[in-house]
Amino acid sequence: GCCQGNSVERKIYIPLNKTAPCVRLLNATHQIGCQSSISGDTGVIHVVEKEEDLNWVLADGPHPPYMILLDGNLFNRKVMLQLKGTSRVSGLAVAIAKPSPPQGFSPGLKCPNDGFGVYSKDYGPQFAHCNKTVWNPVGSGLSYEDFDFPIFLLEDANETQVIKQCYQDHNVPHDGSVPEYPLCAMQLFSHMHAVTSTVTCMRRSSLQSTFSINPEIVCDPLLDYNVWSTLQPINSSGKVDPEKEVIIVATRIDSHSFFWNIAPGAESAVSSFVTHLAAAEALHKASDIHLLQRNIMFTFFQGETFDYIGSSRMVYDMEKDKFPLRLDNIHSFVELNQVALRNDSILWMHTDPVSRMNESVEVQVRNLLDILSSSSMGANVTLQEAGYSQPLPPSSFQRFLRARHIPGVVLTDHKTAFQNRYYQSLYDTPENIRMQYPEGLSPEETLEYVTDTAKSLAEVATVVARALYRLAGGANNTSAIQADPKTVSRMLYGFLIKMNNSWFQSIIKPDIKGILGDVPQHYVAVSSPVNTTYLVQYVLANLTGAVVNLTKEECLNPEKTPSSEKEMYEYAWVQGSLDPNSTSRVPYCVRSTVHLSKALSPAFELRQWGSTEYSTWTESRWKEIRARIFLVASRELEIITLVVGIAILIFSLLATYFINAKADVLFSIPRDPGAVAY
Amino acid sequence: AFFWLVSLLLSSLIWFVAVKASDPRDEKLQKGLLIFGVMFSVLLQEAFRFLYYKLLRKAIEGLVALSEDGCSPISIQQMAYVAGGGVGVMSGAFSMINLLADALGPGTVGIHGDSQLYFLTSAFMTMVLIFLHTFWGILFFHGCEHRRWWEITAVVVMHLAVSGSTFFNPLYVGSLVPSYLLMAIAAAWAYLLSGGSVQNLRRFLLCE
């Protein structure tokens, strides 16, 4: 409207608010991701909904460079490599495909974390580089390509519609004729500061911080915290007895996609750690856990997507004696990888064939497999072995095997290739693990509703918990050890659909309640701890810890209380649930054995930025990331405006000169008294 | 220029208070308030021009007292021209600078349906206003000097007409054409008042 005080900027630009950029990540030798120019990249919009539309961009269109609005179904390797090779493309905006592409979409590698696992030319060379089994055949490797133009994701369908409308109004070529100016254009800003590789950017950052008063850091290592907890409390600042054996249960809690901070990770991460949390809760229900012969450590590794940051750091800490446990203490290792998409209720057990060639290891692995199989009696889970011919899938267990031949098993829902056709992509959503809710439920009702997925994961958790109990030396009846599908369902809702729900709000500390954003994402990021780590820590504390009768001061300062055993336990003051009638919460103190341990790759501790042994992933820094659309005028109109202005300027200068020179001709002396002659 | 700035500040304060006190969703009311704001601003600008005239009159007396030969080094006509020019330049700068800042970006006006010629027409409108303010300065001071109130009234009416015609935008013909016509009239009038005549103009143009 004319009378709302529109500033000129609002007349020109429409900002796009709900977008996600693709950012630059670097490792020891390469840079991946996308980069824009420092003042943004501009281009005329062209909507590409089928492959033929690309010809306009690549060859026919008369107004290069173009900014492409790509339909999500065309976001594949073939199209992207065509766009990468041309200079007529200045940027790309991808509209999410709804529904997800039916043939699958994974921008990850076909062989995830290759080169950082256990298989190499010195150990099981026939299994290295996915020679035997390609784990992610749908993988296009797009996330690991380097693009020199910006790529953004349009999350909001309304914004995509606005762009398409602008395109329809101004840019559509009618019957092959050239569209006329003004044309609809888009500008994307995502300038990244780091270049080449981690070695270069860390060297530059360290030079800056050593010599500059105002250091300009260009990249940050990916880091966060691992969450670990033990069934029987141990002294977290001391060392565990070498004779004491511990069984490690592990899952990863992070995922990734092509775009920054978009990582729903439903099947690749959430399904496994939710099952793990449910198994931990189930185990704590056994009556004789303090009498068990072996301890159990529940470990949640962060950063596993990026060449095993969390697990490689824990192994390093164990080797260097910086962790309460040492590698000698580990009796066996159970890992849960993607477990939500079981076919015919089969859960596969993967083992490492190379280490099993050793007799003693083979005996222990056999024992482990037998206990697992026997624990699945009576549950709707069939455990089957993947066999000697199969290597281990990409898992944190591989990092432990690199250090020591520990007997271990990795449980997944796939025998060879992943069942997950959206591994590490933005389509790895609750729909991918078949989570369905009936229509018309309120958020509270949705939180409490038990989905079939939750029931299936609860069964897996029960089997795992019972097997762990037997492994730890428990002799009693395991029928009490049962995972609760309600808890699993609430966790799935919180970690996949809405983090800001009443249960999560009641179990976190009062001063961090601002972290509960809307759509949950599980990217490891560079500022820590991320929301996921916090929530896993507090959920684990809630499920496995005990409420103790301490006041707020005693809970926050446990060293002052004599019986608190500060080294064995962690105390947290949580805000409690909301009374239905009042607006205040009833906080309480939770005592648990949940600790955080730093998950920063040892390469950064050792300052070996070119390391091929440890993960060297860093994320570039940037100043601003935004996107906007507007109309561009033709070159001719711009030139005309400029020339008219210059002409008027010259004319006025000439006129002033002549009027000044001939002023006595133009102006007669006025006859008013008291006035001065000019 | 400073006086014009102060008048603009005061009138925008009044308009701002009026807008905040009213319902932002009522389109007609907002448009009415804007029209009221513009008219009030015009009247305030002319009032400040009058105040400036009074100030300069006092200044001339002081300059006459200080000078050696009892004559002021600057005539009131020169002051009128400079005052008008100052007001014009400041109002021009105020109109154009934020437009120019946004014109530096890659986009042009039009995505919401506005005319593409927005920058060009704004530039021409600014030019005509700068000229008009200069001529009005001469007319106004002459009117004050010789107690000819109808000259002052004519300036105020012309100013109201030009500002009012901008409400015809984006029908740029409705605002630019009347403004240029009024500028021609004001230019001729100011020229005649400054000592020009048709014979002088003919002699100038024929390069005698």
UniProtKB/TrEMBL annotation, chain A:
Keywords: Cytoplasmic vesicle, Disulfide bond, Glycoprotein, Membrane, Notch signaling pathway, Signal, Transmembrane, Transmembrane helix. Gene3D superfamilies: Zn peptidases. One of its GO terms (cellular component) is cytoplasmic vesicle membrane. It comes from the Eukaryota. InterPro entries: Ncstrn_small, Nicastrin. It is a single-pass membrane protein; Single-pass type I membrane protein. Residues 21-194 form the Nicastrin small lobe domain. The keyword Signal applies. The chain crosses the membrane at residues 639-659. GO terms for biological process: Notch receptor processing; Notch signaling pathway; protein processing. It is found in: Cytoplasmic vesicle membrane; Endomembrane system; Melanosome. Essential subunit of the gamma-secretase complex, an endoprotease complex that catalyzes the intramembrane cleavage of integral membrane proteins such as Notch receptors and APP (amyloid-beta precursor protein). The gamma-secretase complex plays a role in Notch and Wnt signaling cascades and regulation of downstream processes via its role in processing key regulatory proteins, and by regulating cytosolic CTNNB1 levels. Belongs to the nicastrin family. This is Nicastrin. It comes from Charadrius vociferus.
From TrEMBL, chain B:
Residues 1-21 form the signal peptide. Its main location: membrane. The keyword Ligase does not apply. Keywords: Membrane, Notch signaling pathway, Signal, Transmembrane, Transmembrane helix. It is a multi-pass membrane protein. One of its GO terms (biological process) is protein processing. It comes from the Eukaryota. It is found in: Membrane. GO terms for cellular component: gamma-secretase complex. Belongs to the APH-1 family. Potential subunit of the gamma-secretase complex, an endoprotease complex that catalyzes the intramembrane cleavage of integral proteins such as Notch receptors. Component of the gamma-secretase complex. This is Gamma-secretase subunit APH-1. It comes from Charadrius vociferus (Killdeer).
